[in-house]
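Hey,

Quick one before I head out. I ran the complex with adenosine-5'-triphosphate overnight. Inputs first:
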Amino acid sequence: MATILLEIATPDKGEVYAKEINMLICRSVCGELGILPKHARLMTELLPHAMRIKEGGGETQLFVSGGFMEVTPEKITILADAAEAPDDIDVERARAAYKRAEERLAKKDSDIDIDRAEAALARAKARLLVKGVPIG
Ligand code: ATP
């Protein structure tokens, strides 16, 4: 089966993923994208979400908190603000972040930064999704 190299790096951790994969399904500002080997060149911004990586007949999920993705026919390069494999996600920390963001949004206070709270909620939701933890 044809493959394409997926490389993911973050400012905190450097390279967090580098592997030949069969397909990446990810969410960008332009919508959901399915990237196969020999994909046309593109550059886009990613949203916080659980990316799906198909490789060797299996599928894994990887949290990405947003960032930039460059695609060439041979390689996908992602520079993410943060990225974590399921084993690296601290569930209690994600639950606490989720609760904090929900409480901030529920207050509807004028001094609440709504965009920031919504972004924090989206990151926490995606982390819990990657861990398979039910939300709510
Ligand atoms: P928190 O409010 O808990 O810091 P956050 O969504 O604001 O969450 P980020 O800014 O996305 O955190 O990430 C900052 C750093 O902390 C990154 O290196 C990221 O990988 C790590 N990180 C954040 N939350 C978790 C988590 N639940 N499990 C493991 N690592 C995490």
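The two ends are 40 Å apart (CA to CA).

Talk tomorrow,
K.
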